[in-house]
Amino acid sequence: MTSVDIEECVQSKRLHHSNEYHSVSDEERLDMQCDLLKWYQLEKRTNMPWRKPTNKDWDTETLAQRAYEVATVIDYYNKWMEAFPTIRDLASADIEQVNTLWAGLGYYSRAKRLWEGAKKIVEKFNGILPNNARELQQEVPGVGRYTAGAIASIVYGEATPVVDGNVIRVLARWRAIHADPKKAKTVELFWEIAGSIVPDSNPGDFNQAMMELGARVCVPQNPNCDQCPIKKHCRALNQLQAYKNLAKHGFFNEKKRKHVSISHECTVCDEIQSDLTEDDAYAVTRYPLKVEKKPPRDEECAVSIVERITSKEPLYLISKRPETGLLAGLWEFPSLELSSLNTDYLDRSRQTTDFLKKRYGIELNDPKRHDLGNVIHLFSHIRKVYHVEWIQYKSDEAFMDTESVKWVTLAELDNAAIPTALKKVLRLFEKSKSKTIKKTTVKKTVQSAAISSFFTVKKK
């Protein structure tokens, strides 16, 4: 692909081109490999605990486990690795411990799949991960194409690609791919291009460099193109430069413009339906194609924080969610999905009273009920409103814990594997409880002062 081809594409005013426009020449491939690796050695972030210089004497299990990158936050990662330094440690762990350490990160099914994958590796492969992407993806539960490529290239040095959101953005701009990045056909093209440019030497560093570039330079908005090590062959940037040069020489002046007829033959990119006549239309940020997201659906839920006041310390009821579906296997306060939105407090109270009796066998005798308001949590596809009620009742009745229902202390509750949304609920409750205790203390202090004053005899 030459500068003439890029200029002709821009002259069409609708960026018309053929499939060949996205191809990678030998020169472009070699330049990219050299320039990107050189940049990475100078600019890579070293504050990530999973990105330590490779020590070939390290236990293979530990090194492979590190490649999972199980946490996006360093604090979580360190706690995880402290608990499970090897695959064998993870495989022998209890799923409750796994969920507790993962709680708050989201995508909770990944924790279970990691655990299941570790067990499979120990049982079938004697604790050693397969050393190639194909076998990793086929044999290990929870290991998809991306994870398989990361492990195989970073740990074992296999020349295999890695494609994530950052890499897609880099490649979409580098090859000017104007297509829905979620479509299977487009995704396959990104994998194909990524596979064609990964070098035989240092493939792990190259793949990490691609992700690093997307995270720090080729960012969604306001990319730092001046500092980009691969800008020389970036189609998106080349198009913008060509447009500015043509505009400078009056090409887009309708009186002077020559007729340019270039058909759009690309079977990957969406065809642009109107002329592009402004700088912004040729901005690098037009790639990847922005696809309108489907708005999350609204759901509402009545959450009951049931506090059983006993002769000892208060106990709180929690139940385990089903092993499949949203927030699978995590603990929560009794939660009733509401069939209609915008319900009132009295209606919810009636529903939760029936729910607690039918689901948990709880008879609320002279309870104190407090409407704590609500918290909102956004999942990837759901906007969930949790209406929170605090219910207190006295009972020394013995309840048997089961695998899915428990009565726990507040301290135990703090250490339970509960999702982020329910942690918000817990914070709201603790704040309200603190205020209630403070008011009660003030009231008792005032009463004590009044009684003391009544019985105090002033000295004459």
CA gyration radius, whole angstroms: 30 Å
Rounded to the nearest angstrom, the distance between the terminal CA atoms is: 107 Å
* CATH class value of the largest domain: Mainly Alpha
**Helix/strand order, N-terminal first:** HHHHHHHHHHHHHEEEEHEEEHH
Supply the number of helical segments: 16
What fraction of residues sit in β-strands? 5-15%
| Global structural class | alpha+beta
Largest sheet: 7 strands, mixed
CATH fold-level name of the largest domain: Endonuclease Iii, domain 2
CATH architecture of the largest domain: Orthogonal Bundle
Description of the structure:
The protein is an alpha+beta fold and 460 residues long. The chain has 16 helices and seven strands. Strands 1, 2, 3, 4, 5, 6 and 7 form a seven-stranded mixed beta sheet that branches. Strand 5 (368-378) and strand 6 form a beta hairpin. Helix 2 crosses helix 12 and helix 9 (145-155) packs across helix 12 (203-216). The termini are far apart.
Helix/strand layout:
Layout: H1 3-11, H2 26-43, H3 60-67, H4 74-83, H5 87-91, H6 95-102, H7 109-125, H8 133-139, H9 145-155, H10 165-174, H11 184-197, H12 203-216, H13 235-248, E1 297-309, E2 315-320, E3 331-332, E4 335-337, H14 345-360, E5 368-378, E6 382-394, E7 405-408, H15 410-414, H16 420-455
Parallel strand pairs: 1-6
Antiparallel strand pairs: 1-2, 1-4, 2-3, 2-7, 5-6
Helix pairs in contact: 1-13, 2-12, 8-9, 9-12, 10-11, 10-12
GO biological process, one term: base-excision repair, AP site formation
Domain HhH-GPD: 63-216
InterPro entries: DNA_glycosylase, Endonuclease3_FeS-loop_motif, HhH-GPD_domain, HhH_base_excis_C, HhH_motif, MIG/MutY, MutY_C, NUDIX_hydrolase-like_dom_sf
